[in-house]
TrEMBL record:
A Pfam short name: Melibiase
Keyword Kinase appears in the UniProt entry: no
InterPro entries: Aldolase_TIM, Alpga-gal_N_sf, Alpha-glycosidase_related, GH, Glyco_hydro_36
Taxonomic source organism: Blautia difficilis
Protein known as: Alpha-galactosidase
Assigned keywords, A-Z: Glycosidase, Hydrolase
The UniProt record lists the keyword Hydrolase: yes
Amino acid sequence: MKQILNRYQFDDMVVCYEINDEKQVGLFLYPADMPLEKCANPDTAIDSLVQLKIAGDMYNGAYAPGNTLRNGESTIRMKYVSQKLTEENNVQTVITVMEDERGYQVTHKLSYVQGEKVLRAECEFLNKSAESVKLEMFESVSLSEISPYISGDEAGEIMVHRLQSRWSQEGRLLSQSLEELQLDVSWTKEAVRCERFGQAGSLPVNHYFPFLGVEDRRNHIFWGMQIAHNASWQMEIYRIDENLAISGGLADREFGHWMKNIAPGERFLTPEAIVTVCHTDSADFFTGRLANAGQNAADAGPECEQDLPIVFNEYCTTWGNPSHENICEILKTIKGKGFTYFVIDCGWYKREGVPWDISMGDYDPSVSLFPMGLEQTVQEIRNAGLKPGIWFEIENVGQASEAYNNTEHLLHLDGKPLTTTRRRFWDMTDPWVNQYLTEHVIEFLKKYGFEYMKMDYNDTVGMGCDGYESIGEGLRQNMAAAREFVEKVKKEIPGIVLENCASGGHRLEPGYMALTSMASFSDAHECVEIPVIAANLHRVILPRQSQIWAVIRKTDSLKRISYSVAATFLGRMCISGDVWQLNKEQWAVIDNGIVFYKKIASVIKRGQSYHFGTEIKSIRHPDGWQAVLRIGNNGKAYIVLHTFMKDVPDKISFSLPENCPSDISDLFSWEDKKAEIRNKTITFYDLQQGDTVAVFLE
């Protein structure tokens, strides 16, 4: 028999804990504006808020092994001990203690930060027994009773939303029904149904983002979560009866090759999970709540970042061959154009005749590229009124470097150096490596006075490494040490601006986003799909942190330049390309774009995004059109419209939300374009293939 243990309201979210006669506790959320007469379906079993699996304990039956480690003996043995609500520094935390009679204790924490629209969850395992125990699954959060407003098995009513990710195709929305995922309840209500997904390796956004949304279409409610973790992770959608549950955290033994020994008296803490629930018709509004969970961390970043300054990165100008000569040539052109940062990208360290992408690791500035010393080039950047930045691939070493052969301090797998086509990986837990990187990265940054560092990471460790109780734990430990080194950089060089890059967008998870000022949105440097990817990312990271490339070529038409520049309005503007070879007309389009960007920067920084357009079936070859409306918190808004290669109407209209301002105060395009708003409907006229129009609304 189930009953309510406690209810708490945080902002517009209600947190409900239920308990049964066996002292098992479940957790679910619902919107405060949709009160329930009963907070649970009495015909369903409780699905525990604590999900763990201890090696040697009985697995869940009903065809679960190989599909999920949830709800086995280890979970069933966890019984309720206590619950309390604490408050400190505008943070309220519900602390629930569960315990196994064998001496295993789990403390479940669910925290609310004043002003946010999300909750933050984590679990801590304490071994109070006299013997070591081995965890093979321990999730950060588990929510059940989705949806408590629908009786029965919810047939046809529940949609699952995920964000897929491949290199240069980040953030594609995948929406499927429970039935498409074969999560229908079995006819006996005895067989486990589970969709477990995630990724294994050191690129946390490689295949999927650590994001999950579940929608009750009948009642217009969304539940969702993100996992803040920079290594292998998983999420699960689970049911055995009419109670649907979602959970997530570290990738387990089956999915991520992870096991962890916990000695007597030791503790283990999961990564943070971010969860929310909201009552809305808009999927964009729901995803905006999760993305906006990063605002406090972004606000706490360097002061120079708060007005979203513009970046010039020379990578797509020199393609890995930066030199004092070509940097000075670029600086003559861009000085006074409105840029704040100048980033020297990869290649500054390479030996003569050796490609940049196999040379990283030693990090001695090239004498041939910088014959007067790198300090002279940095001074030229400062003389142009810009803040100097530089590229590092901190954790990897290339096969042409001396570091590549320093195998004693590199990661190993099966007793041999862990090697991919062009790279090996530092053992970031090794004190010698920490000291080496302190000298070659931190002291280097200090010596030359760099104020910005682009941190790239162009490969993945894969499933793990040697040296620990499991290769998955080896990966987790190494990636935790990598994060600690970044924190050391920030401590040693206060105010440094850090760019989070991993082959473009493969580290766009909440933990690294909170650690850094901004992120490279993708490696799609000058592709037609840039605005599609940039718009996708509004669902999962803050636009103020999404650095978007506009690579301008001397052969680009004014229309093409407008297309590229306008894409940067969907995040942070980053310019590169043949800038010293452009004519006045080409530069005029860029200059106008910079002016427009600075007008909308406050809306990029804080606001709510909405997507409009035709279905994009192919990111690589998009057809139709796309528009993104972003409404700021300051009575201002902007719209960025792109058309693609086929099926483009010459006139496009769509309705605006009631809270959207309706006066067009500025318009950006490559030629005179007409746009008007009547009766809360905006219409764009005279559109062509590959066109763009952006409007600023006040």
